Amino acid sequence: AQSVTQPDIHITVSEGASLELRCNYSYGATPYLFWYVQSPGQGLQLLLKYFSGDTLVQGIKGFEAEFKRSQSSFNLRKPSVHWSDAAEYFCAVGPPGFQKLVFGTGTRLLVSP
Amino acid sequence: DAGVIQSPRHEVTEMGQEVTLRCKPISGHNSLFWYRQTMMRGLELLIYFNNNVPIDDSGMPEDRFSAKMPNASFSTLKIQPSEPRDSAVYFCASTLGQNNEQFFGPGTRLTVL
Questions:
Q1: Is A18 strand, coil or helix?
Q2: Of A65, B1, B22, B113, which is the most buried if we count CB atoms within 10 A?
Q3: Are B31 and A99 in contact (CB under 8 A)?
């Protein structure tokens, strides 16, 4: 069965510093991979997605993620964090040709001044 | 575009009462998903529909939960009778086609006393 692991429950980053959120997945083939962000009291918003092709994916709000097949990872990065990036981030995986997504448990990002 | 609309945004009820959550997907989308989010279990897929037909309801916790999609623009999630452990945020999401972005509604926060 497919699964997603986000090993960091909380991360605190200083404003202006770089960010990397970890995501590891378990799946028998190359899955479809997603990163979503959830601001307090809001629904989830898609940041970026990977289906195939270039393993470095650009998303909205200056985020990017890199798919590494050998490590079964899809880590999210941002070179310079803004206070408005404070939110919860979810990695999700879904098999190709299918719509059911499995979400990780999320990583809460705190941004310090 | 109004996005996915959910109502009510907040619901407080007493144990044993019937609860009905409503969702209007984005016009033209053909798939609809119901999720439940709790601190303990994270984000769980309860059920999803393709073209108004339930495809996978394996996430529905028990017979007290039921979902319907009578037409392409409306879906309900009903809990009868409700229990305190049903307290959670319930999200509805919709998408068009396979493996496209799931657009989430703002959620309904349910509290069962």
A1: coil
A2: A65
A3: yes
* Residues of chain A neighbouring B101 (CB-CB closer than 8 A): 46, 49
- What share of chain A has pLDDT > 70, as a percent? 96
Structure tokens at B1: 């575009």
Q: A67: helix, coil or strand?
A: strand
Rounded to 5 degrees, φ, ψ at B38 are -135, 160
Tell me the one-letter amino acid at B24. Answer: K
| Inter-chain CB proximity B42 and A106 less than 8 Å | yes
Residue with the two structure tokens 């999320």: A106
* Alpha-carbon gap, residue A9 to B103, rounded angstroms: 24
* Contacting residues of A for B50, CB less than 8 Å apart: 99
- A84-93 tens-digit pLDDT: 999 999 999 9
Between CA B90 and CA B43 the distance in angstroms is: 9
